[in-house]
Amino acid sequence: MINEIVSAILILVGAIFMLISSIGMIRLPDFYIRNSASTKAVVLGVSLILIGVGIHYDDILIFIEIFAILFFIYLISPLAAHIVSRAAVITKVDFWKKTKLDDLKGYEDELKD
Amino acid sequence: MSFFTIVSYIAIVIMSISMLLTLVRFIKGPSLPDRVISLDVFSANLLGLLAIYSILSEQKSYLNVALTISLVAFVGTLTFAYYLVQKKNKHQEND
After folding, report:
1. What is the rounded distance in angstroms from the CA atom of residue A95 to the CA atom of residue B59?
2. Which of A22, B20, B25, B45 stands the most exposed, by the fewest C-beta atoms within 10 Å?
3. Mutation test of the interface with chain B: which of A25, A31, A65, A90, choosing the one with the most B Cβ atoms within 10 A?
4. What three-state secondary structure class fits B11?
């Protein structure tokens, strides 16, 4: 019984985090800021839901499989966000008008590779 | 209908709403990278939905599908980013 309550709370909190990240995808003004919302909140939400599912099954084989999924997500998600942001900088996607940065000013030649 | 089943249905409804919001960004998105990351969020929502559905239908093999989806979504994102950079490079060489 206590398993079911803990697992239900984890699944519900994870689903609410996914909803928050989708609202961020709609409301935020810029591609780069949206990328931050889509990476961090989604990783937290998916890992909470998967841990809740594992607690509900209460089986060591299911936990191993969920550990594999979480390992891939933690490995992949920052990598994918970095690669897509780099491609967006190279193809000159517009920044938000309030963002003030010129850190990449001297490095245009190195970005071409 | 137990307590856990009701909570699972509520979570499925919440995640379906978030998938719809992600699709709005996919249709509206001004640039191609917007669409790529919205597909990423969509596949993550699909992964969580499959995990909850594997409890409701009592079929553990849906978790294997979730593992496969997490890998395929990464390959899709990587391919789109590579394609964007290559297209830009080719465009510069033609100038």
Report:
1. 46
2. B20
3. A25
4. helix
